[in-house]
Every structure is written in C-alpha cells, then in structure tokens.
Amino acid sequence: MKLIDGGITAAKGFEAASTAAGIKYQGRTDMAMIYSTSPAVSAGTFTSNVVKAACVKWDMDIVHSEKPLQAVVINSGIANACTGKEGFDACEATAKAVEEVLNVPYDTVAVASTGVIGMQLPVDKLTAGAKAMAPKLEGSIAAGTDASKAIMTTDTVNKEIAVEFEVGGKKAVLGGMSKGSGMIHPNMCTMLAFLGTDVAITKELLQEAVSEVVCDTFNMITVDGDTSTNDTLICMANGLAENEIIDKKGTDYDSFKEALLFVCETLAKRMAADGEGASKLFEATIVNAKSKEDAKILARAIVGSNLSKAAIFGCDANFGRFLCAMGYSGVDFDQEDVELFFKSVNGTLKVFDKGTPIVFDEDEALKIMKADTVTIYVDMHEGSAKATAWGCDLTYDYVKINADYRS
Amino acid sequence: MKLIDGGITAAKGFEAASTAAGIKYQGRTDMAMIYSTSPAVSAGTFTSNVVKAACVKWDMDIVHSEKPLQAVVINSGIANACTGKEGFDACEATAKAVEEVLNVPYDTVAVASTGVIGMQLPVDKLTAGAKAMAPKLEGSIAAGTDASKAIMTTDTVNKEIAVEFEVGGKKAVLGGMSKGSGMIHPNMCTMLAFLGTDVAITKELLQEAVSEVVCDTFNMITVDGDTSTNDTLICMANGLAENEIIDKKGTDYDSFKEALLFVCETLAKRMAADGEGASKLFEATIVNAKSKEDAKILARAIVGSNLSKAAIFGCDANFGRFLCAMGYSGVDFDQEDVELFFKSVNGTLKVFDKGTPIVFDEDEALKIMKADTVTIYVDMHEGSAKATAWGCDLTYDYVKINADYRS
Question: Does the structure's ipTM exceed the value 0.95?
Fold first, then answer.
C-alpha cells in the first residue's frame, strides 16, 4: 500500500464537480457532486441519532438495498434535519434533477447535507446547483480537491487522501474526502465522508469492512460529544480495477481492509485535529485493558472530557482529570493498577504510578504538552486489549464559533 | 414549610467554624468544620466514579455503618483523590485531631475535600486547621455562612439555605450548604453538600429520603459532564426537634421529604447557575414522556450538550441543537410527536411543531433568551412522565478557568 496524490477522484471511474449554489454561504462553493462512470456497489454507516436528517433516511434506503449507487450530491450550509416532509421532498427533487442531467435512475443518487438544523433547503437553488455541476464532472485531482472544499462548514482545512494497493495482482486505488468540525462525536459525526474505490468487491464484504473499520476510526473521534443528525459515510466500489471480485475473506480482502483502515484513520484524525476552535490533536491510548470494549470506552472518556480538553488547551499537566474521566466512564477498574503517561514528539513522562502520584518536572511536562499532538498513554495492567481515541482541545474559539453559529 | 435565614447551623444543635489553614489558597479561609452537639444519624450519597477520593471512601465507611456521625471537616484546594495510602492516612489523621479536641470518637468524624486531583494534602496544616476550628465552633448564622464560604473553589457565590417545617406538632429545621462549580455532573458532582436537621428520624428512612431526593435534584444538574472523584452529600439528623421519631412513611416523613426536596433543589439550581464561567441558568423540562427515566435522560442530554450550552451563551435560538441532543440521548422517540418551546420570564415561543420547524420572530426569540434563566420546554406527546434538569451556558470563562486550573 502506498500513499498517492488526490482524494475522491483518485480511483478509476470517479469524477467530481462543485459549484457555488448560494444555499446559505455567499462567495464560496457549497455543493459537490461525486459520480462513478460505472454503477458501484455501496456500503455506508449513518448516524445513530434517532433524529435523523431527511437525507440520511434517503441514503439509508439506497445503501441498504440491492440497488447500485452512481452519484452523490452534497450541500453545505443547511443540514436538512428536523424539516419534516418538505425536507424529504428536497432529497427527491435533487435526485430527480441528477437523473435528468446524468441519465442515471434517481434512486441510485445519494444526497447529503451539513449545516444548520431545522431550516428548509431552498429546493430551486439545490436542483439548479445539481444541474450546473453535471457538465463540469471531471476525474482530475483538482476536481476532487475542489469537491472536498465545497463540503466544508466550520472546517479550516479540506480533508482528502488516496492510497494505492494490490488485489489479485491488479493495482487498485481507494480515495476519499471528509468534512467535520463541530457536532462531532460519531456514532457513526456532522461528519460526512465519501470514499471511492475501483476495487471489485461484493456489497456484503464491502459493508462488513466499512462497519468494522468505522468502529475503530471515525467512531473513535470526538470534538464536542454531540452526535449529529447527519453523520454519513458512504463508500462506493465500482470494480474498474478489474481484479477478480473479492467475495470471500483472504489476502485480497485484507489488502483492501488495510487500505480502508489507513484512509479512514487518517481522515478521522484530521477531522479531530480540525475540530471547531481546536489548537491541537488530543489522543488517548489505552493498553493492557481487560477487553477491547473497555479500552475504547476509557479512551473515548478521556478525549471526551471538557475538563481534560481544557487542560490540553492550557498545556496543564493536570493528570487527575484524565483519571477522573476514566473513573466515570462506566468501566470498572482499580486505580492501584494504573500507570499514566504524557507523550508527544517532545518526550514521555510518567505522572501516576499504580495509585500514587509521581512528583514530576513541570518544565518537562510543559514541553511535552506544547506539541501539536499530545497523547495520554495509560497502561491498565489488567489484560491485553488496547484502543486509541482522538479528540481536540477545548478553546475560546470553540465557544466563539458555537455561541453564534447561525448568523 | 417556610424559608428561614441561615444554612448549616440553622437546625438545633448544629455548629460551624472555619479557618485559613493555607492548604493551597492564601489569604482566604479554606477549611470548615460542622459539629452536632448531639450524635446524629447520617445518610449520604457519594460519587459513582470508580476513582473515588480517599475522603469519599472514609465517609462511606462511616455513613454506611450503624455509627453515629458527629462532625465533618472539609477542606478546599486539594481533593485528596488519586493519592494512594498517603491520602487515606491524611483522612485518619484529621479525624484523630478532631477526636483529640472535641472528645468524639474519630470514627464519627467525616472528612471531605475538593480541589486539585493527584496532589497530597499537607497533613500538618490540615490537623492544625482542625484543632484551630474546634474552639471557634458556634451555632450562629454567621458561623454557618463563613463555613459555606470556606469550602468554595471556583464558586463565585456561597450557597446555603434553611427551611422550617412541622413534624408531629413540633417545629423542625433543615439547613444546608453546598459548593460546586466545575467537574459537575453528579452521579452523585465536585459538589459537596452538607445538610443538618434536628428532626428525629431513623437512619433507614433518612437514607431512603436522601437517595430519592438526590436523584431528582443534584443528579439532575450538569456543568461540564465530568463526574468528580469527590462528590459527597451528607445529611445529619440529630433529633433535637424532639418530634416523635419518624420510623415509618406517612405525614411526618412527607413533611421532611418536602423540606429536603426544596433544600436540595434550591442548592442544586444555585450550583448549576454558578457553574464555572456560567452567565445563566439553563433549564430543560420534558413533559408527557413515556417514562420518568426517559424524561430525565432527555432533559439531561439537552443541558449537557456543549453545542446547546454555547447556543444558550450566544442567545442563539438554534433549536436544532436541542433536538439533536435529545436524538442521541439513547431514548427512542419520533420527532413527528415533538413540540419544542423557548421559555423565560420574557415570554414563551414555540419553534418546532411535530416534525416541522416554525418560522419565528428572531427578535422575540432573542428577548426570551436574554433572561438569566432560559428554559427549553419539550412536550413529547407520548405519555405523562416529566422531569427537569439544570445546567449552565458554555462560555469563554469556562475555558479560561479550566485551561490553567492548577496555577
């Protein structure tokens, strides 16, 4: 597997376009289209929030059916959540506009939205935007990059990645893009992620790989503990790599899954690092826990704690907050077993040793905590399971961004 | 029942003292002592965090035994959590210092701490402080008020209250004090609360009343979602009201429980309103839910959401965030049933009507949201259960306070 340039258009047959449809933002692109020249099998994971956006319901119907998926239309600015029947009608109108211009059945067109909840989408602008993008579809890297920019809301950087790997002697590619900065606590965040691969794989195995990988990547990040109404990840596989179709587990499946894990973990970490107002990536790694589930819960509790996040922002080695978060996570453990370390590119420092605080050098702690990525590393000494979760610090800018989001 | 002046010293036989022991803060009081002239039965609720402070373990041993409770010694500045055996020894040394000066058995002396986790208490200062307070014990209102100030950390105001009520023809009093401003998400917050009543009641009924009332009051507040290692509520009942002892449920028990509910709810709301950095009290009321448990989970999800809290700070009527929080709370419901209102002393405004957003007057919304207390009122239309939770807004000052707590 090797990293290559590009994102959603990197794999064979994937094209993208974007446009400034004036949905809510002015003077920037706010719609993107992804198109596979060949009908693709799809897999997806969607928000676990019972208040699901209209577009999430629309996409679940397609992805969970046997239908192929050929295009995705995305808008930023308005989330199309809590919008009743009018919201669902907007999804259908968008898909039908795509049918008209691309000559693909409207029920093979997914739609995704991110932005303010509880506001209706301007359907005319949406359908006009879809129609404007169709003739501009391109397989170039630049087209993919532009699409990844059009779906941003409070994101400060676009997020895309692509890797090349081998399956059955054939070169295959997996590329993807994602957005997400606030309301990020995926159970399956408003994170949106779209992946395209030219690998040939059955729908069942694609979904299994996606579901497993999402649990260890996107579902292990948090910005603010708020699980969005719109979280959507869709992966399309169009088979244009011409490998022998992956229809059972084995070397080929493993190669694909390795690529998928790398792509998802990279996009997830970039989303966490670009969390609203964030100044750094905050990572928690739990090792030697009783079970994988325990390790995941503990790691997420640490990166999810407001007090921990504020300490990371302040470069304050207030390790008690991390232990406290572990303590209320719901996992049972004995603090007498626990060792806790601060880690970064600037060094490693043990601060808590099996029930007892260690007197440490504050200057050394400060140096470690000033890095762009700070890791809380915890050895539970009770088993062999491990997990890592990613979040970001809690800053003045988070409050600023969210105290007046709508205006 | 009527509100009277005072706090922890309001009931007969309760005395208090405070001192500046120099534990961590300089130039302010940081230790308090509560003393009942007559041995009291006690009841308590303690943090559900598995990382429990040494003092919590000490107090649980006493409160969960048949022993009477006669004194409580509290310090602010250092929490005595994650401190191993040395921390537990500090509790014992404190209780023994009290035994020496007050001539009460050391195992009838509770200790409580609040402040930084993972730092050892200076035992000499602690025992010297305990000894200095004993001769200063007084039943005056002023002594109680001073005690309520000595236990403050980032609190901006002290919190105390007292009520008078009748049991079996006798006048009885219940007074209390609490502190808590950050790391507040009680499952049983570092909130500390101490209540003293002169009512005569059995230990069993006292514990039952306390456990039930805490669930609807202190356990329904949140400042930051972080459940402390030190949360402690202790209620002492010394029987000096000379009522016939309450040993069964009935009118007398109900009178006491009503007083207890009022006192706990008042202290809990004051703690939420004084949450770290808070500019206002943020209340969520759920009505007509399927079950009480559902109503509580939904109400807590709303006041616990960072995005909701930031919107409350910004007076932004971004109602989708409240619906979103309800959606990820874990409670199953249909948004098509839900009505959502903004309420305050400045008016009531419906913004979401059974699945559909209502176009509302932004100026009216702003007026409502500018009040000191803002309520999100949600009618679920699916049952008859209700619950209220209290929190506060998320502000720049929260980040400021917590980015550099230790210095």
Answer: no
